[in-house]
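question for whoever is on the cluster today: can someone run the full assembly for these? two chains, 717 residues total. i dont have access anymore since they changed the login thing
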Amino acid sequence: MSQPLLSVNNLTMRFGGLTAVDAVSFDVYRNHITAVIGPNGAGKTTAFNCITGFYKPTDGQIVLRHKYDKEFKLEEMEDFRISQHAKVARTFQNIRLFGGMTVLENLMIAQHNHLMKASAYTIGGIFNTPSYQRAQEAAKQKALAWMDRVGITDRADDPAAALPYGAQRKLEIARAMCTDPVLLCLDEPAAGLNPKESEELNALLRSIRDNDDVGILLIEHDMSVVMEISDHIIVLDYGRKISDGNATEVRNDPAVIKAYLGVVEE
Amino acid sequence: MSLHDQTSSSFLPMIKRSVIATIIAFFLFLPTLGIKTSASGGVDGLFLTYRWLLLAIGCGLIFVGRIVYELFWAPKDGVQKPAKAQFGLVKALGSAKVAKTIGPLLLVFAVAFPFLPFSDRYILDLGILIITYVMLGWGLQIVVGLAGLLDLGYVAFYAVGAYSYALLSIHFGFGFWMCLPLAGLLAATWGIILGFPVLRLRGDYLAIVTLAFGEIIRIILLNWRGFTGGSNGLSSIPRPSFFGLPFNQDPGGFAATFGLEYSSMQRIVFLYFLILALAVFTFFVTARLRRLPIGRAWEALREDEIACRSLGINTVNTKLSAFAIGAMFGGFAGSFFAAKQAFVSPESFNFMESATILAIVVLGGMSSQLGVVFSAIAMVGGVELLRQLQFLKVIFGNDFDPSQLRLLLFGLAMVLMMLWRPRGLVSTRMPTVFLKDKKTVSAAMISQGRG
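^ ran it for u. tokens below:
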């Protein structure tokens, strides 16, 4: 296999006396779906927040490799720079959309840094220069393409808060993808979805994996999603990695069964 | 259950609530209506007069008023009635088409205003004042309405602009058009200087620190006598001229050059058009900014800061740009203020000014430029209107001074706003970009910002 897209090495995060993530190491590959699972409180979201820069890890290295061997040390970067330069996009467990803004506006904001440059940091934008107009139109087309892909084009001009829950989840993924990421981090994307919506989500994630040249890292509780689409599963329990492998391997790992079901006392 | 039963069963609680309201009113009115302090020239200094009749009338009004309210308006059985359709006119202000019609009409009216038959000096001065507040409102709207940052010290930037013009023109002899951009630049710089330490704070804390900043600027102006003239202020600031032609009776003046008879009104009309031009400039720039990536980022910041960061938006720079650009327009307005008055003193920049500008933005609606125009007219013009109510003296006697009711009516207006238009005159927002059709976003969806 080629070099991993993301290498997490010895990641540790302590909150006071509590060690939420304890020396966890794993790799994420391009065009792979990697799932992080584990019981509640296992440290999944904390690990996630460390990778996307919302927490500063206590210890460990997180290295992201672009093509042409360009490397980013994510543990040293601020959250918005991780998205801007290292091209890591994320969604949130409790959806965070710009509720009072329309679906299209949400997708335009995702292209903020690109459009800021195109508007010559606002100065060119004020005079509506042709190059800015072209960039704005291109951004709109890109937004439209993503709306088509997740199937919310008919709601383009509606405020995001007015969308049904499933559509909001899709919009959040589309918004993350509009930032042109190399790594897409999804925090429980199937939470609150009905079985039909879960199916659609699976199809969408597969299509992103196969067509968009990104690595997908997701946290999920819904095993129907995890087992079906993941190429690689990492299991955390009490902040430690207890298993690592493909769906079949993980499913039959005694440590995983113990963590989820408890162990029968002899 | 028959109608009769319902009425009788809710009758006693209704009386009970009215009595409670009356008791509360009694204690509120006791010091305000019931007791009057008068200064006597004698040894005692102050003595009290009791006005029991007035107190009784006040309490009676509350009792009757509460019963009337319960009978006609109050929600029945504690169930909140669904919000009634908004008033036609006010609702219309939110729609794109109406805004597109009213806007140009207002501008035409504003341009024709000085030439209308009733426009005397007093009316024009009032017009200048209102437009100044409209401009300040639009500037503050960027910070409070779009970026959702509660700024209680906006008047500081107004003061920076005014003193910049005053000092630059007195010491260096710079003209108005040269000082204007410099004043804007200085105010924007102060916006950034204030912004850096303050923007880590959110919500109430941000409000308190900006409030303090407003006061600090005023107190510095008051105490740095050598530089700012202290409480005496700076006087004899050069007045703006018409492309180099001063408004005076000299042969080289404006009137003589154009072969007109000299009139002091010419200068007022010029000032009027000057502030109108500045306000129109502010309007177009802020309206344009809102549709640019920077404006969308401001609104996104108000909606969800964490989501902004996850999308790679530098929230610190975005907040600073909102502060700086808002401050710049405050600086422009301040520069005009100094030019108009030819005199600045710290007294013009107290907290009341900040509060008025903020009230204009809040009453107008956080993201509607048209709303700000109407609320500025109501807030500034309404106060002036009170002075005109001298005929009320016929009813209330000669001691009655209607302008003293200013704050009372202000409070009443606030209460009415809270009841009927809690999100301002125009509470909806217009999308900045659309695919097929532009639909207004209702206030219920829009976040008010916590920073």
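summary bc i know u wont read the tokens: The interface with chain B takes residues 52, 54, 79-84, 89-90, 92, 96-102, 104-105, 108-110, 112-113, 115-116, 119, 122, 125-126, 128, 136, 140, 144, 153, 156-159, 161-162, 175-176, 179 of chain A (CB under 8 Å). The beta strands of chain A are 6-15, 18-28, 33-37, 59-65, 71-73, 88-90, 183-187, 215-219, 232-237, 240-245.
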